[in-house]
UniProtKB/TrEMBL annotation:
Keywords: Signal. It comes from Immersiella caudata. Residues 1-18 form the signal peptide. This is Ferritin-like domain-containing protein.
Amino acid sequence: MLTSSLIPLLPLLGAVQAAPAEAPNKDNAHPYSAESQWLADPTYGPIPGESDIYNYYWGTDRPFPGNITDPIFPTQDGPPGIDDWTWQNLLSAEWIIFEFYQRAVELFSEDSFVKVGLPQTTYRRIQEIRNNEAGHLRIFQNQISPTSVKPGACRYQFPFTDPISFLALMTVLEISSMAFLTGLVQQPRIASGRGAMIAIAEVETRHETWALIDIWKTDPFGGTSDTVFPYANEILDTTNAFIVPGSCPPENPEYPHPRQRLPALSAGKDTPSLTPGSTISLDFTDPRNQPRFDPYWQYYAVFFHGVVNVSVPIDTTRWPQQEIWVTIPANFETKGVIVAVVADRPGAPTKESIVAGPGVILEQPAALATALLKGGAPGL
């Protein structure tokens, strides 16, 4: 699906102040639980890789550390760690993903998925993914230095009410995360941090593969390479659509940091196909945040797929009176995802060159992409 918000139903919104934040004072000015500060000790609670709670917990209650949602305040004075912004961004994003799966565990049951023709193991797999995501919360908390705040959870809103709409959004999120992670892994300056991100990405790939095989009965292979999109924060910004405005702890850092607040990009809802070679109209879906085009400048739709990108000149001179049309490069394989942006230079060589987007075009399964664009989900 080509949409800046992954599902074009929810508004983009602002984030909150940047880290590091001050620790809570002794007068208990912050209405947070004391247990959240115990999480500052990386040895507190079950340790990922050493505890099966992150794999084989089958309850509906929130597993550790997802049951402790308050921010964790600095325990030492000093400047932030050199990679703290990256890990704070990732922890804030992980709270969204954990809550997405936790909400499904609470809302559905094994019978919910069996009744729509899915394997009996589907609900248990979702619980196991939820458990993995809880472990990711703890890993990311421990990557942030003791001189910076570790973001707490906000309140979230997700556009699903039934098993099929949940699984459709799950598939988009899991497959799109590959493009996000290929950019994010370029950010840490400490080599061990890059290694940790690759290890997490491999787990997410397993989640994606399970969904493609068991749920959608489709080829799970994504071609020779997942898509590399270098501006991870731009994809992260689209997930603000799932955050209830004003619900984040005020001590949380800006999410993501830095945040560009680019106009949202989607294909027109009447688009019949999003496969390579299809001609689509570009829709900027947030009326409060529209692009501004210089009538004397040439703009491009830049499509990222695999390890390459292709730039296609577009005519913006008559927009918004006339729609902007572009053809997805026909030479791309129908695998994985394509990430599209509108840029003022071929190849979108810097994040500042991007004027709208990104939008994620889901190629596997292709029918899911067009169904979601029209506001539904295909049958299983």
